[in-house]
Design a protein that fits this description.
The chain has a 7-stranded mixed beta sheet with strand order 1-13-14-12-9-6-5, covered by helices on one side. α1 runs parallel beside α2 (about 95-115). The two termini are about 25 Å apart. It contains 7 helices and 16 strands. The chain has one domain (about 20-85, about 155-320): Purple Acid Phosphatase, chain A, domain 2 (4-Layer Sandwich), CATH 3.60.21. By secondary structure, it is of the alpha/beta class. The protein has helices spanning about 60-70, 95-115, 130-135, 145-155, 190-200, 220-225, 245-250, and strands spanning about 20-25, 45-50, 80-85, 120, 160-165, 165-170, 175, 185, 210, 230, 235, 260-265, 270-275, 275-280, 300-305, 310-320.
Length: about 325
């Protein structure tokens, strides 16, 4: 797949009757059919930066800075940044002090390198202490779990919604704690009921964009791990995409104004069009956890342009950064 650099503006497009999927390191444009690059003016331009995984060691901090500088140097500066989650390298299995050190670095770089408003989504690695043995947690700490990320990002809840530029935006919390110290990608009943209410309350003529850390629907899990075929069956990890995808499908079928679902988590890019909804996983700023590209995908970010008629386009941008330089 071709990739988009700061000096390029190439795009890929794809369409299918029931659904299509594109993998690699660039995603194409539009919703509900083939739309070639257009001269119509977007009502909102989003820079989707996901999976930064910043840490004090190595060149991660410089990589985050370079990515933000690349966003700010675009010919048309985005209106908003969507932080897709996993802002820091890891809080799941670290001490409180180590997690707070990473958050302090994240916030410092944002202050120094960014002037664009940011909307945050929480990722699994932003959650503190779920791996209790390694983190030294009991589960009773005041900032245990998602609470530390909420405090650091100054959020009241891990899921929320707002309206802007004629679109309705919804941020979801993909992760639920498992008893073994891990997590699973699923909405609990309370959040799903809230989501249902949000869709019911949104006028049918208002297009909806949903942001989640873990993909709701994606082909990327098929390439994320090796040896996933066992006894003529695919054996996919339930933390790489939402386990409740059937629930989402049935809900979205009643709301054709759900246009676009953005995600990260799997450090790869793809696009899946299914039943009128486009699902896009948009790579990772850190690539392969700051050691270069991850499989076919270079470190980068997505620029998503939304239009008044409910259509959109999307390009993946790499940026100048060398893990060995």
């Amino acid at each position: 797949m071709e990739k988009i650099s700061r000096r390029q503006a190439l795009q890929l497009t794809a369409v299918g009757a029931a659904g299509v999927a594109i993998g690699g390191c660039a995603t194409g444009n539009s919703s509900r059919g083939l739309l070639l690059p257009t001269e119509k003016k977007p009502v909102l331009t989003i820079a989707h930066l996901t999976d930064v995984h910043v840490k004090p060691e190595g060149k991660a901090a410089m990589g985050m800075r370079q990515a933000l500088r690349a966003v700010h140097s675009l010919p048309q500066r985005p209106d908003v940044i969507f932080n897709g989650g996993d802002a820091i390298m890891d809080a799941l299995a670290t001490s409180k002090e180590r997690a707070e050190e990473q958050w302090a670095l994240w916030k410092q770089i944002l202050r120094e390198e960014n002037t664009i408003p940011v909307q945050h989504c929480i990722g699994n690695h932003d959650i503190w202490g779920w791996q209790r043995t390694k983190a030294g947690t009991t589960g009773n700490e005041p900032l245990y779990g998602v609470k530390m990320a909420l405090e650091q990002l100054q959020l009241e809840k891990p899921y929320r919604s707002w309206d802007r530029a004629g679109w309705h935006f919804i941020v979801l919390n993909s992760m639920q704690e498992r008893g073994d110290g891990g997590y699973k990608a699923v909405l609990d009943d309370e959040q799903f009921e809230w989501l249902t209410g949000e869709l019911n309350a949104t006028p049918k003529e208002t297009p909806i964009c949903i942001l989640s850390h873990i993909p709701i629907l994606s082909v990327t899990p098929f390439f994320f791990v090796k040896n996933i075929v066992k006894d003529y069956r695919f054996d996919l990890i339930g933390a790489l995409a939402h386990l409740d995808v059937h629930r989402f499908r049935d809900l979205f079928a009643n709301h054709p104004n759900v246009k676009l679902c953005l995600s990260g988590h799997d450090h790869l890019t793809d696009r899946v069009d299914y039943n009128g909804v486009t699902y896009m996983c948009t790579g990772a700023v850190c690539g392969n956890w700051w050691s270069g590209k991850f499989m076919d995908c270079e470190p980068g970010f997505a620029i998503v342009r939304l239009y008044a008629d409910g259509t959109f386009d999307n390009t993946y941008h790499t940026y100048e950064w060398d893990p060995k330089g």
